[in-house]
Amino acid sequence: MPTHPRRPQPEPLKTNDVRVAAAGTVVWAVALLVLLVVGLPEDETWWLWVCVTGAVIGLFACWFIPRMQRTRAEDASSAAGGTPAGELEEARLREETSATREMRAAEERGEGTTRRPPLS
Question: Above 90 in pLDDT, residue 53?
Answer without folding.
Answer: yes
